[in-house]
Design brief:
It is built from 25 helices and five strands. By secondary structure, it is mainly alpha-helical.
C-alpha cells in the first residue's frame, strides 16, 4: 500500500498555471507541493525536489504552509528510511496541532494515515486499522474533505481483505466508492477501490460482481492519466479473476503485462503480488514446472522474502506443488518450513533458544558417549546401528503417513471444489434460463412497441396528415376563387391553424420513428434529439466519442430510445439547468453517461418505478447491459449505462 496523496496532482499543467497566476502565495505554495508529489510518483526526483523548494519559498511567510512542507518532505523520502519517516510524520502532525483550520486537520489526518501505512510494512494490520479509525478518520471528518474520507475507507477495506474479513472489507469499499461517485471525483483511489473490491468479490466467489468491478476500474483507467501502480493493481486483480474462472491463458497474459510494468518501474512490492498470482494461475492450470519456476523467482528476491507473509505463501506454494507432482520428500520438507515459519515471532525466538539449549545438551551427552565408546566400542556400534535402523524406519513410516495425508487432503479439496462448481453451474443454468425467458419477453414487448410506433406514425403522416393537407387546399381554393367573398376572411382563419396542426403531427411522427436516425445514423440523430430539447432555462451538452456508423440498426434504435427516455425524465421531473450526455463506443461495448444538476431524489423512497425508468431498464436488459444510478436529494442525478452491441452490427 502506498502513502496517501492529498491534493489532486494528476494534472501538472493546471498546477503550473497556478504558480504563474495572480492567486495568493498560499495557493501557489500548495500547487508547488502537489507538483513535487506528482514528479516524485512519476520517477523524476530532480523536479520533485525543485518544486518542493519552490513551495517552501512561497510559504515562507505563512507558518501553516511552511509546516505542511514537512509532510511533503517525508512523503518524498519515506522509502529511504521507514524509521525516520515514522518519526517525521509524527513530528509534523504534532507541529500542526497549534493550527485549527480545515487545512491543518486535513494534513494532520494525512500524517497519521501514512504513519499507519508504515505499520503495514511491518505486517501490523491491526495497528494500521487502529490508527485510521482513532486518529486519521476523525481528523479527516473535521476537515470536511469527503474525497480524503473516501480514501481512508479504501485503506480500511484493504486491511479487512488482508485479514480475511470480507464482509467488513466489502462494506468499507462500498462507502469509499459511494463517496467518490457522489462527489463526482474520478480519483485514482476510485480505481483502487474498484480493484480492491473486485479481489474481495473473487475471494467470496462472487465472480459476476468481480467482473463488473474490474470493468469499471478499466473504464476509469482509460479516462485519466493513470499511474503505473494503478495499472499493476488492475492486472493483478484481472489475473486473479481469470484464474478462478479457469481462463488461464488470459490470466497469464494480464499478469505478465503487470510484471513488465513492475520491472520497468522497480516496484518490488507489486511485482511480488503479480508473481504470486502468476504462480496460482500455473498451479490451477496444472503446469507445475512453470509454477515451481515462478516460486523460485520469488524465493531468490530478498526484497520479497523479507516479509513474513510472502515467505509463508512461497513455502506453502512449494509444499502444495511438490505434493501434486508426487514428490513427497520435497513436499514434506517445504511443509515443515511452512509450519515452523507460521508461528509468531516470539514463538520462533523461543524455539531458537530451546534449540540452542538442546544443542548444548546433546554436545554434553556426546562427550559422555565418547567416554563410554572407548570402553564398550563393539557393543555401542551394534546399538547405534539398531537405533539408526529404527530411526530410518520411523522416518520412512512418517513420510508415508504424511504422503497419505497430503494425497487424502488434496483429493478431499478437489472433490469439495468439484461439488461446489457443479452446484454453481446448476444455479447458473437455472438463472440463465430464467434470464432468457425474461429477455425474450422484453424483446417481444419492445419489438411490438416499435412496430406499433411505425404503424401509428404512418397513419398520422399518410392518413390524418394527408386529409388535413387536402382540407387546407380546398379551403384555400375556395377562398382564392372568391365564390363566397363575404366568407373569405373566415375561411382563411379556419385554414391557417391547419399548418400548426400539420407541424405538430410531423413532430409526433418524427418522435415515434426518428427519420434522422434512419438516414444519417446514431450520432447525428442523438445530436438532433438533444437540440430539440434545448429550451431557454436548460442547457444540454452532447459529447459523442468514437461512435461507429456500422452499429446494428436495431441497437441504434434501442440506444436512441434510452437517451430519449433519460431526457424526457430529466425535463419532466429534475428541474435541471444543465444536462451532460456522453456516448462512447469501445469495441462491442457502448457506454452512456447522463448527468444533470437537478433536484435529485432518494432511490430508497421510491415504492414503484415510473414508466420512464421501467422502459429504460427493459431496453438495457434487452441489450444485456447494466445501469449504475447515483442520486440523492439536492445533488442531481447520474446514470452510467453499459450496453453490449450486436456482434453482426
Amino acid at each position: 500500500m502506498a502513502a496517501l496523496s492529498i491534493p489532486n496532482a494528476s494534472k501538472p499543467d493546471s498546477l503550473v498555471s497556478v504558480l504563474y497566476s495572480g492567486l495568493p502565495d498560499t495557493a501557489k505554495a500548495e500547487a508547488a507541493y502537489s507538483l513535487s508529489e506528482y514528479y516524485y510518483k512519476h520517477g523524476d526526483p530532480t523536479k520533485a525536489i525543485f518544486y518542493l523548494k519552490k513551495g517552501k519559498e512561497l510559504a515562507s511567510k505563512y507558518p501553516l504552509w511552511i509546516t505542511v512542507a514537512g509532510y511533503y518532505e517525508t512523503l518524498i523520502h519515506e522509502q529511504e528510511d521507514h524509521g525516520k519517516a515514522e518519526q517525521s510524520y509524527l513530528t509534523t502532525e504534532q507541529n500542526l496541532q497549534k493550527f485549527t483550520s480545515k487545512d491543518a486537520y486535513y494534513y494532520r489526518a494525512a500524517c497519521w494515515y501514512n504513519y499507519g501505512v508504515l505499520q503495514q510494512y511491518k505486517d501490523d494490520q491491526k495497528g494500521f486499522a487502529d490508527i485510521v479509525l482513532t486518529k486519521a478518520l476523525p481528523l479527516a471528518e473535521k476537515s470536511g474533505a469527503q474525497i480524503f474520507i473516501g480514501k481512508t475507507y479504501w485503506g480500511l477495506g484493504v486491511v479487512f481483505k488482508n485479514i480475511l474479513q470480507y464482509p467488513q472489507s466489502e462494506n468499507n469499499l462500498k462507502k469509499a466508492i459511494e463517496i467518490f461517485i457522489t462527489e463526482k471525483a474520478i480519483d485514482p483511489y476510485l480505481i483502487k477501490a474498484y480493484n480492491t473490491i473486485a479481489e474481495t468479490y473473487i475471494l467470496e466467489a462472487k465472480y459476476n460482481y468481480a467482473d463488473q468491478a474490474l470493468a469499471q476500474a478499466y473504464r476509469y483507467l482509460n479516462m485519466v492519466d493513470a499511474s503505473k501502480d494503478l495499472w499493476m493493481d488492475y492486472y493483478t486483480s484481472r489475473g486473479m479473476y481469470f484464474t478462478v474462472v479457469k481462463k488461464y491463458d488470459q490470466s497469464v497474459n494480464n499478469l505478465k503485462k503487470g510484471i513488465d510494468i513492475a520491472d520497468r518501474s522497480g516496484d518490488t512490492y507489486r511485482k511480488g503480488r503479480l508473481l504470486m498470482q502468476l504462480f496460482y494461475s500455473f498451479y490451477e492450470a496444472k503446469n507445475f514446472e512453470k509454477a515451481l519456476e515462478t516460486l523460485g523467482q520469488m524465493n531468490r528476491d530478498t526484497l520479497l522474502t523479507v516479509q513474513l507473509t510472502n515467505r509463508l505463501q512461497i513455502y506453502d506454494g512449494y509444499a502444495q506443488t511438490y505434493a501434486q507432482k508426487g514428490d513427497y520428500m520435497n513436499a514434506f520438507e517445504w511443509q515443515t518450513k511452512y509450519s515452523a515459519l507460521s508461528d509468531s515471532v516470539n514463538s520462533s525466538k523461543l524455539k531458537s533458544d530451546i534449540n540452542a539449549m538442546e544443542v548444548k545438551f546433546h554436545t554434553a551427552e556426546k562427550e559422555k558417549k565418547i567416554t563410554l565408546l572407548e570402553a564398550k566400542q563393539k557393543e555401542t556400534q551394534l546399538e547405534t546401528r539398531n537405533k539408526d535402523t529404527l530411526i530410518f524406519s520411523l522416518l520412512i513410516v512418517c513420510i508415508l503417513l504424511l504422503s497419505l495425508v497430503i494425497v487424502a487432503w488434496s483429493s478431499y479439496r478437489k472433490t469439495k471444489n468439484l461439488d461446489r462448481q457443479k452446484e454453481l453451474l446448476h444455479q447458473q443454468v437455472l438463472q440463465q434460463k430464467e434470464q432468457d425467458l425474461q429477455l425474450e419477453s422484453v424483446r417481444t414487448l419492445l419489438e411490438g412497441e416499435e412496430k406499433e410506433r411505425n404503424r401509428i406514425a404512418r397513419d398520422l403522416h399518410d392518413g390524418l396528415g394527408g386529409m388535413l393537407a387536402s382540407l387546407k387546399f380546398k379551403l384555400s381554393h375556395i377562398a382564392t376563387e372568391n365564390k363566397w367573398p363575404q366568407n373569405a376572411n373566415e375561411l382563411s382563419k379556419i385554414a391557417d391553424p391547419i399548418d400548426s396542426i400539420l407541424q405538430e403531427l410531423r413532430r409526433i411522427s418524427r418522435n415515434m420513428v426518428p427519420p434522422t436516425l434512419m438516414q444519417f445514423g446514431l450520432e447525428i440523430a442523438l445530436n438532433d434529439l438533444c437540440q430539440s430539447y434545448n429550451i431557454q432555462n436548460t442547457t444540454i451538452e452532447f459529447q459523442p466519442i468514437t461512435i461507429r456508423k456500422d452499429i446494428y440498426e436495431n441497437d441504434q434504435l434501442m440506444i436512441y430510445r434510452i437517451v430519449q427516455e433519460l431526457l424526457a425524465n430529466a425535463m419532466k421531473h429534475a428541474s435541471a439547468k444543465n444536462i451532460l450526455i456522453q456516448c462512447s463506443q469501445n469495441g462491442e461495448l457502448f457506454l452512456i453517461t447522463f448527468e444533470d444538476d437537478g433536484i435529485g431524489f432518494d432511490p430508497k423512497n421510491i415504492t414503484s418505478k415510473g414508466i420512464g425508468l421501467a422502459n429504460i431498464e427493459h431496453r438495457v436488459n434487452y441489450m444485456d447491459g447494466s445501469i449504475d444510478l447515483s442520486t440523492c436529494p439536492g445533488k442531481g442525478t447520474a446514470y452510467n449505462i453499459e450496453l453490449k452491441l450486436n456482434s453482426h452490427g
